[in-house]
Amino acid sequence: MRRLLHFLLYLAAAAALELRISHSPVIGLVYKQVVLHCNFTIIASVKKEDVAVKWTMRTVFGEERPVFQFDGNHTASYRQGSLVKTEFLPYGIASLTLSNVTLMDEGIYTCTVLVTPQYGNGKIQLKVRAQPTVLLPSQSLLNAAEGEKTFACAVHNFYPQTIDISWLARKHGSTHEIPLSSDVCTGVPSSHGPDGLFAVLSRVTQLVNETNNGSLYICEVRHESLEKPLRRNTTLVVRAPKPYQQDTGFIIGVAVACIVVTCSCSIFFIIFYQEYLSKAEPQVSSVIKPDLIPINEKTRLICNISGFRPKKIEIKWYRRSPNTTTAPAGYSTREDVALSDAQEDITSMAIQPLEANGRFYSISSCLIYTPTIKDDGAEFECRIQHSTHKSPVRRGIFIHVTARPASCYIFSSPQLPVQGEKLILTCVVEKFYPRDIALDWFRNGQPVEEVTQFGPFSCETDFYSVWSQTEFILTKDKEGAIYTCQIKHSSFGNVEELSYEINLQGVPPEVLWITADPAVPVAGEELKLNCRINNFSPNLIRVNWFHDGSPLHVGMSHSVSVVGSNGLFSMWSLLRVIPRPGVGKTVFTCRVEHGALKDCVERSYILPMLASPLHLDG
Ligand SMILES: *[C@@H]1O[C@H](CO)[C@@H](O)[C@H](O)[C@H]1NC(C)=O
Ligand SMILES: *[C@@H]1O[C@H](CO)[C@@H](O)[C@H](O)[C@H]1NC(C)=O
Ligand SMILES: *[C@@H]1O[C@H](CO)[C@@H](O)[C@H](O)[C@H]1NC(C)=O
Ligand SMILES: *[C@@H]1O[C@H](CO)[C@@H](O)[C@H](O)[C@H]1NC(C)=O
Ligand SMILES: *[C@@H]1O[C@H](CO)[C@@H](O)[C@H](O)[C@H]1NC(C)=O
Ligand SMILES: *[C@@H]1O[C@H](CO)[C@@H](O)[C@H](O)[C@H]1NC(C)=O
Fold first, then answer.
1. 309 in any annotated domain
2. H helices within 135-195, ranges in order?
3. N or C: which end of the chain has fewer CB within 10 A?
4. Ligand 6 atom index nearest CA of 240
5. 218 with 312, same domain?
6. In this predicted structure, what is the pLDDT of residue 494?
7. What is the best residue among 233, 234, 236 to mutate for testing ligand 5's pocket, by most ligand atoms within 8 Å of CB?
8. What is the number of domains present in the chain?
9. Mapping DSSP to helix (H, G, I), strand (E, B) and coil, where does residue 568 land?
10. Is the dihedral of CA 239, 243, 245, 250 positive or negative?
11. Side-chain half-sphere of 259: how many Cα atoms within 13 Å?
């Protein structure tokens, strides 16, 4: 019996080629090279001609693309700078090298290897990241008479958009770093170039004097692409006023010069007047606002004022409430009256460092404001008063706030679809703002017509919720179909999609990547590996852990399954291990089996080799 089993296993192995591929996701850095590993096991010796390799990829937009192909004789590279070294195929290496990675390379790669009659494939996710470059001059000069200084940190070429920039100060001769939180203005990361990378400017304004001479101002940047924060610093150098020097030679020089100067005095004065004393009117930009203004998040409105002289200027910010409250009887409801009454001076929320550009001055006034739902339709005004103006220059802008739905999900009733019976799929989008929303259903990419929408109805006074339902008799041809609920709402800045696959066995679990606590393992200290398993049904699931392929029986604990608002179950499984120093890299795997899954799903965590801690007894 046992021998027969071995023989059957041998036959199965003969048809399936075992591949060892890179652990997903592989992170590739923009403009760098990345290698996606795809190694296969060769039983007998093979020649290069006996092997065929194909690499394809699916972009984040779902488009399939060929990347590289080798048919045993010819190679074809469909992406410039993609390469499989065919001379290594006889050693079981079909790894793909991509040079000069760009954002276009992001996606899921499939490696297919054929060594007749064996055949195998594997998928690798490639994420592309770009590490920011941070520019801050190493020294900042300050004339003793000026009372404040603005430091600007320019952060370029990063991806994805989310970035965290903070400022710290360190007194001369001290090692203590003080975080600077007020008067910091960081713009909205924006992307201009064709490469899709982001850039942002962060400024901090500080009141400084001689006592700050030699102080260090540090700009600290945290980004997903960086292992540790990137720091740049600038030293403040205060220039003492120059003492007046008396010197006989100097006096004679001045006397001679004076004679020459007198002759051209009037001409000089005219030029001097035009160049230095004449007034220049400020150029005022319109108010710049971000495309999306989510509630309860800091938003920045910027008004650029440039090229003015003299430097004395007053910039104020005002907010006018939206004109929604109905005026009491007898009062005028004319807009101007209602708005001017509601005006509120919010200049204290702005930071506006003065900068000298040659003989002119400029200010980038940045209002940092955290809007609430009450700010929808409010007007913000930047008002500039300068001696060149008879009346102030005003720049106003209306803002519209958005709130992302607090939750979006699809639920089915009955939860377990039954062939030949009615199935109702409901797409629920809760607690969003504004009210306008569009929900569309698709079956395998084709629009579904029979849809009933409920709402949008009010939810928690200021927000809205909506349900969209499609119901049908579950015929055999609909089994395996993918239903998509497409949600268009201004808070997304784009479209979001939820999918539901008709599976008579239930809803398969989403298995997340393993998270480790602590994130950087330490030899001799307990390491917790957490495998999260979300949104499955029915509540029958099996989770096992493996260490380098062998099953583990101790050290793990499973949570009970909890039911979410979508009616699906979620749970986690925790493995506690104590990494030993000096042991080579090992792999921990969490394997999930569920009736609605065709195959089991595995997630692995690679524990690198750890050095011994400094103090080790025994
Ligand atoms: C594949 O083989 C190469 C070369 O021997 C090796 O560097 C790489 O780590 C291997 N990758 C995997 C996933 O086994
Ligand atoms: C390889 O390609 C060349 C040129 O295309 C062709 O002449 C040759 O016959 C091919 N060899 C094999 C083994 O198919
Ligand atoms: C990499 O790609 C970018 C954009 O496609 C291009 O501008 C640059 O010259 C390339 N660099 C190299 C070394 O090929
Ligand atoms: C310099 O600034 C500090 C605060 O930053 C203040 O306490 C101190 O009085 C100032 N010194 C002078 C001479 O203005
Ligand atoms: C400040 O920057 C210099 C040069 O980049 C660096 O050597 C120094 O360590 C930095 N100091 C701090 C406190 O970050
Ligand atoms: C500030 O420090 C620099 C060098 O450390 C020195 O040359 C300069 O005179 C100092 N300024 C004042 C106002 O003390």
1. yes
2. none
3. C
4. 13
5. no
6. 75
7. 233
8. 5
9. coil
10. positive
11. 5
